[in-house]
Design a protein that fits this description.
transmembrane; globular; mainly alpha; MFS; Growth Hormone, Chain: A; transmembrane transporter activity; MFS_trans_sf
Length: 512
């Protein structure tokens, strides 16, 4: 193969004979288990915070709890662009095995942690591997796709992801209550070892012999930008005021890192996130819609849980059960979409329908009051799941079919990268919005003090909070309307993509 030739997919003639059906089926099962492992680990820790604090640091542990989540998220997000480039340079199988092994090492260290400081540091190690679990797995699934298989792995991956989002806190609570909090990390080990062994045997993917230089400076700048953005959204309005010196300084550094990163990507021989990808209309649209989906997910899940606990008095564990209708909606529609995709239905149809359902569900949530029936809330969450279930997997598929074959890795991890950054921006935007609207109606009353109020004061504070939450839901719905308009702009060529890109041909939206 010439040095500059495109990476063939497993479905191309140059990739050799297809793997036996049983081996290919095992490979797909491994990918789904890996996605489930990734999603569960992002949600499972929240259910064990109390026993972790009680065991490791009962005095100051509560103050450090946010870093249990942030350390994982920062490490995982910062390395996403690098993972994509590594896949394109060295092959997805090697990167997949390395990511899983790193994740398992981090899990074992987390389970053995003897202090909060150790646990936070080991969560960062776990996040380094966790950043590749879902994104690299999506690359693997794209390369496993056979010619003519337009259902792809993206839809099924979205289904597994939706289910894991709902059951993660429940599994974490069960493990913490019956086996101890350390088992929320140790449970990853047997599952991960199965994934490693199965992947080593079953994954037969194309790869390149490491041609090209890795742009470490670009990867460092991308990590600095992502870390800075996540820290600004995490600290702003919480640890520090938005106009405080730490937040403004960090924000300035983040903007500078972004500028340097873009300049580096324009001049590097092997950029980690090639700017040429943004010249492809389908990729440009897919990244933008995925960022809006990340914001919409934040505006729905986080603030529905807050609404249930603050306004309705639902306990945290019981509130997590309300995510089950959402997961059911994602799973059911994901199965239907996967079937229809195999019959040739256009991806743009599902993207438009998904954005429309999500917008409608969020706008309906925006009509919620202090006495809205809880079954109505469950129905609205189910509709929201129907919407997101059509968006998550289809967006991955659209991007993968549009990307040049030799840039499949960076395009796929780019989808995840923009969703994560969108979620961070959504958290900052909606959190500030909620605090401002509630603060204007209840000056001097902290949100955490609502539960301690009584009588008329409590009723008034609840109404003020519900109004603030409704503003958040309507704003998130408006963002999904914008996602719908963007989805309508997808060119018909994206709907007709049929794996030519997988075979090394031009991607959707390419010219020439």
């Amino acid at each position: 193969m010439p040095a500059g030739s495109a990476l063939p997919s497993s479905g191309s003639a140059s990739a050799g004979p297809p793997a036996p059906a049983a081996r290919r089926g095992l490979a797909k099962l491994i990918c789904l288990v890996t996605i489930l492992l990734a999603v569960l680990d992002m949600n499972i820790v929240s259910a064990a915070t109390v026993p972790i604090v009680r065991d490791l640091d009962p005095v100051h542990g509560v103050d450090r709890l946010p870093w249990l989540v942030s350390a994982f998220a920062l490490a995982a997000t910062a390395l996403l662009p690098l993972y994509g480039k590594l896949c394109d340079l060295y092959g997805a199988k090697r990167v997949f095995l390395g990511a899983v092994a790193t994740f398992l090492a981090g899990s074992a260290l987390c389970g053995a942690a003897g202090s909060m400081e150790q646990l936070i540091a080991f969560r960062a190690v776990q996040g380094i591997g966790g950043g590749g679990l879902m994104s690299v797995t999506m690359v693997v699934m794209a390369q496993l796709r056979e010619p003519g298989d337009e259902g792809g792995g993206g839809s099924i991956g979205g289904i597994i992801g939706g289910a894991g989002m709902a059951v993660g806190p429940l599994i974490g609570a069960l493990l913490a209550d019956h086996l101890g909090w350390r088992w929320i990390f140790y449970v990853n080990l047997p599952v991960g070892l199965f994934v490693l062994a199965g992947a080593a045997f079953a994954l037969d993917l194309p790869h390149r012999a490491g041609r090209g230089r890795l742009d470490l400076l670009g990867a460092t700048l991308a990590a600095a930008f992502a870390t800075g953005l996540l820290l600004v959204t995490e600290w702003g309005g919480k640890e520090y005021g938005w106009t405080s010196a730490p937040v403004l300084s960090l924000g300035a550094g983040t903007v500078a890192a972004l500028g340097l990163f873009l300049r580096r990507q324009a001049t590097a021989a092997e950029p980690v996130l090639p700017l040429s990808l943004f010249r492809i209309p389908a990729l440009r649209t897919g990244f933008a819609v995925q960022g809006l989906v990340g914001m919409g997910l934040t505006g729905s899940v986080v603030y529905v849980m807050l609404y249930l606990q603050v306004a309705r008095g639902v306990a945290a564990t019981s509130a997590s059960l309300f995510l089950i209708p959402m997961a059911a909606g994602m799973t059911s529609v994901g199965l239907l979409v996967n079937r229809l995709s195999r019959r040739g239905r256009a991806p743009r149809t599902f993207l438009v329908a998904g954005a429309g359902c999500s917008a409608l569900a969020l706008l309906l949530l925006g009509l919620s009051g202090p006495d809205t029936g809880l079954w109505i809330v469950r129905a609205e969450l189910a509709l929201l799941g129907v919407g997101f279930g059509q968006l998550v997997g289809q967006l991955v598929g659209v991007v993968q079919r549009a990307a040049p074959a030799h840039q499949l890795g960076v395009a796929t991890t780019g989808v995840r990268f923009f969703q994560t950054l969108g979620g961070a921006l959504g958290a900052a935007l909606f959190g500030t919005m909620l605090a401002r609207v509630f603060g204007n109606a209840e000056p001097g009353t902290p949100l955490g003090a609502v539960a301690t109020l009584t009588g008329a004061e409590h009723a008034h504070a609840v109404r003020s909070f519900v109004h603030a939450a409704d503003v958040v839901f309507v704003s998130a719905g408006a963002l999904m309307v914008l996602a719908l308009l963007l989805a309508l702009r997808l060119r018909p060529a994206a709907d007709r993509a049929s794996g030519s890109n997988a075979a090394g041909g031009k991607g959707v939206g390419q010219t020439g």
